[in-house]
Amino acid sequence: MENRITLLRQGRLQPGQGLVFGTHRPHPVERIHFDIDQYVAAYRVGRKPDGSPYRYHIRTYGCQMNEHDTEVMAGLLEAMGYEATDAVEEADFILFNTCAVRENAEDKVFGEIGRLRPLKMQNPQLLLGLCGCMAQEQGVQRLVREKFPWVDLVFGTHNIHRLPELLTRARESQETVMEVWDRAAMTIEDMPKVRKDRVRAWVNIQYGCNKFCTYCIVPYTRGAERSRLPEDVVREVEALAAEGYREVTLLGQNVNDYGIDIGVTFADLLRRINRVPGIERIRFTTSNPWNFTDDLIAAIAECEHVVEHIHLPVQSGNSQILKRMNRTHTREFYLALVDKIRRAIPGVSLTTDIIVGFPGETEAQFQDTLSLVREVEFDNAFTFIYSPRENTPAANFPDDVPLEEKKDRLRRLNELQAEISLRRNQQLAGRTVEVLVEGESKTNRHVFAGRTRTNKLVLFQGEKRFVGQLLPVKVTEAQTWLLKGELVREEVAVS
Ligand code: 5AD
Ligand code: SF4
Description:
This protein has about 500 residues and is α/β, with parallel strands linked by helices. The protein has 3 domains: about 140 residues, Rossmann fold (3-Layer(aba) Sandwich); about 240 residues, Alpha-Beta Horseshoe (pyruvate-formate lyase- activating enzyme); about 55 residues, CATH 2.40.50. The chain contains 15 helices and 21 strands. The chain has a 6-stranded parallel beta sheet with strand order 3-2-4-5-6-7, with helices on both faces. It has a 5-stranded mixed barrel with strand order 17-18-19-21-20. Strand 6, helix 7 and strand 7 form a beta-alpha-beta unit. The protein is globular, with a radius of gyration of 23 Å. It binds 5'-deoxyadenosine and iron/sulfur cluster. Iron/sulfur cluster (SF4) binds next to helix 8.
């Protein structure tokens, strides 16, 4: 009888079908429990003829979501028998996990793929792959076909779990294997992961975005919002705690919309995760000012493990620009929300994303952004020049602002934010902060790095055994992007 694996290998089984284990819930978004052992068994590569292992190298661009997808793909590849390598020359498979949010990230990837051509010519066994948000763009698929035919494999954000099969097909095929699903109506549980860090872990809670900000490509590359079930998220966090992880970062494009599709709330998810023993810090990103409810603010304030840091992208300080961005919040709404958050969560640190040079942005409208930044006093801001993205509405908006002017606005904004960041850091000088120790500095032995609950980087003299501990550190020097400090007591972990 033909089994599932045979059907899968022959491409006669619909992707995802036959991988369902455990309970199947009646829900429009299909929940699939991935049985890695069964699935990957068919694609284990073994050793190369010379006895050495197959090696992979993944280059990751863009956001934390992508970083975490890379951890999943590393998990799939290692289950196939591949081993990681940092050296591209040693790799049998080089994969670009790409970002499509701005054009310069795309240009970098194509530049890198171009530079790898000689390596590919020298070693025909080497496979090159492209995945992530760029792969979802039709223009990119066309470009790969026409200009980069030495790319062996292209797959999208919705079919990452199919990597073992696609890679196997690419090894056997004369042509570029391309499989990009244009939408996803499922979430997949129990994917294997090779996590980069031993102290802090990323946990997806939601995929996709329904917001359709007019400049943004993400709703097209990541599809509609889908939430994981709270019990699946909590189970993953419990497993992480059992492995010794101390911090989780909950990931989604709009975490505060988490659960709308399944009748639960993000606030309640935070309360549940807050009860998982062993997890000392709970972070989340990204939030949207819209639907940042009073109950959510209350949950952040009351849950002792949820940190006092909110990344709350504003994008612009001018309500007309915000309207043309389809951001659903105004300047006044944002300022009122910040006020409410600051009153409920003392000491909260706020960071943001800002786009300058949106099509038609006037100097006066840009001044509104500067004044909002002055008024809010963000701890940090990620600032970008608007980059037109194919097939997004804003790409067709008339734009009469010269690039030089946009660059100048970015410079002025960055100067202002640097002043504010320094001032806010200086407020911590002489104070003792709780630091979760992440690891030793790569360049300076005995210098260790960690973060405060408010996500500020702290450097201090330490020892390897401190990694993973919460320690009190007295801030001795405040710089714009980091703090320097001294350990107060090494043996007592604070909470
Ligand atoms: N151009 C410039 N910046 C963009 N972002 C998203 N799309 C664009 C674009 N087309 C920025 C937004 C978002 C962050 C992740 O990237 O500020 O919050
Ligand atoms: Fe893009 Fe807006 Fe969705 Fe954020 S909320 S991913 S900026 S469309």
